[in-house]
Amino acid sequence: MQIILGIFFIAIILAVFLSKSQSIDSKTKTAIIVIFSIVIVAAILYEFMFSKKEQNNRELINAFKQDKMLVCKGADVNNTYFTLETGTLSFMAKNNYKKIIGTIYSIKDCSLKE
Prior knowledge:
Elements: H1 2-20, H2 26-65, E1 70-72, E2 75-77, E3 82-85, E4 90-93, E5 104-106, E6 110-112
Antiparallel strand pairs: 1-2, 1-6, 3-4, 4-5
């Protein structure tokens, strides 16, 4: 959201500058407006996709903490056998279980088991 507000603020400044400027011809003004519009649309799409990804991560983390089963690359993951590393958003196998020791799954490779 901060990105969109920042771009909106810059757009206002740019609009004021372009309206006051007499040395820039209309084709250049149009090109600047088109390029800036493309940047604004790209920022909005990025913000939307990032928000959706963050919401999905929050849901997976909450499910993991509630001892629900996740599926990561075909393997079942729960908090009995794995721990959540919040810095890297990954699930690491606990050292108590020799069969899966050293196994790490990124949260982006996981989904909630149906």
